[in-house]
Design goal:
The protein is built from seven helices and 19 strands. It has about 375 residues and is of the alpha+beta class. The protein folds into two domains: about 130 residues, Immunoglobulin-like (Sandwich), CATH 2.60.40; about 140 residues, no CATH class. The chain has a four-stranded antiparallel sheet with strand order 4-3-6-7, with no helix packed on it.
Length: about 375
């Protein structure tokens, strides 16, 4: 005999009523269907039988109905309890005379060869209308006092202590905004008289207009721009220029003062690596150059070495420090907790050295 398994995700209750005192007309029910091997029953018609049990998990069934439904690609089936095939009336259930339990049975083959798959108690949600109002009003009428809340969970919560005065303070209210020192608010305009914005190279500020004299599509190798020298250029799929700029200065520093694992292991992404490295004199120096600078990855140092002709031409013209012909330069690419990868400008290849070793350091930025 094939055993079948039903794993219930949730029971969502929508009580459809016309009068305060009526019982809910249906409940939305969702479940994930799996076969005997634990695999999802996907996009397949199944048979289901639902029973409402009174008093206990093995109590009398006061309502039974069957459904034929189809699971989705995730094995999820949705039915409306109260709308299936049944000889009883769902609306006749006396929800006040609980507790009630829901028993679910399923046939993944779409028939009526059901097996019991789960019994769970229905809590307050399915008959919330009755618990809060059915005993208070037998027919539709104007009520002047709401019924007392008897839910112990609600009674123990902070919400139980809320009053009409509390909620009146919420509606249509907004705390006033108080301007701090040097901040001025006039209507819908906020301005500052404290900070001064200073335009960087190639940026012009005229009144409320900020413009740039830098043509984003006319970078060239060896160009002195954005605080450094362009040494690598490529175009993206839309034809726009991008590339890398090397700093005009360099220093020598350790990769880390005390070796530790940082997960900065990308060979191609120096920005990512730099953001992860901690306790690094090399990174501290790089970040001191400005927000956009970072310690290059091993691949980016390889690009710098292969384009050192253009880089050194630009550095020489700008009065910057030339790239060494023999030094090791630290990359941001980590090997493990103890080692990281420097790049030798003597032979043009990566190496594997202890992080506390002092090597040359150059910063790069992308555009």
């Amino acid at each position: 005999m094939i055993m079948r398994k039903l794993i219930t995700i949730c029971v969502v209750v929508l009580a459809a009523t016309t009068l305060f005192g009526q019982s809910p007309e249906m409940m939305n029910y969702q479940a994930v269907i799996r076969n005997a091997n634990g695999l999802l029953v996907q996009s397949q018609e199944i048979g289901m039988q639902v029973s409402i049990l009174q008093g206990a998990a093995d109590g009398m069934a006061v309502y039974v109905e069957s459904h034929t439904a189809e699971t989705n690609i995730n094995g999820l089936v949705t039915i409306e309890i109260g709308t299936g095939i049944s000889s009883g009336e769902f609306s006749s259930i006396d929800w006040a005379n609980g507790p009630y339990f829901i028993k679910t049975e399923t046939d993944p083959e779409g028939g009526t060869n059901y097996s019991v798959t789960g019994i769970s108690q229905l809590l307050s949600v399915p008959y919330a209308l009755h618990a809060t109002s059915a005993e208070y009003a037998e027919t539709a009428q104007t009520v002047s006092e709401p019924p007392a809340e008897t839910d112990p969970v609600f009674g123990a919560s902070l919400a139980a202590g809320l009053t009409a005065n509390d909620t009146a303070s919420w509606n249509g209210k907004q705390d006033p905004l108080i301007a701090g020192p040097g901040i001025h608010i006039n209507g819908d305009t906020i301005r500052s008289s404290v900070d001064t914005i200073i335009a960087g190279p190639g940026i012009q500020i005229n009144g409320d207009t900020i413009s740039s004299s830098i043509d984003p599509d006319h970078f060239y190798l060896g160009q002195d721009t954005l605080g450094g020298i362009v040494f690598y250029i490529y175009r993206d799929r839309n034809g726009a220029q991008h590339g890398l700029i090397v700093s005009k200065t360099e220093t020598s520093a350790q990769w880390q003062s005390t070796p530790s694992l940082t997960q900065a292991d990308r060979s191609w992404d120096g920005t990512y690596n730099t953001g992860l490295i901690t306790g690094s004199p090399a990174v501290d120096w790089v970040k001191g150059l400005g927000e956009d600078w970072y310690l290059p990855s091993i691949d980016e140092l390889s690009l710098l070495w292969n384009n050192r002709y253009h880089a050194n031409q630009g550095l020489n013209a700008a009065g910057g420090a030339l790239l060494s012909n023999s030094a090791y330069y630290w990359s941001s690419t980590e090997g493990n907790a103890t080692y990281a990868f420097p790049y030798t400008f003597y032979g043009g290849f990566g190496s594997y050295r202890v992080k506390t070793t002092t090597y040359n350091v150059r910063a790069v930025k992308a555009f």
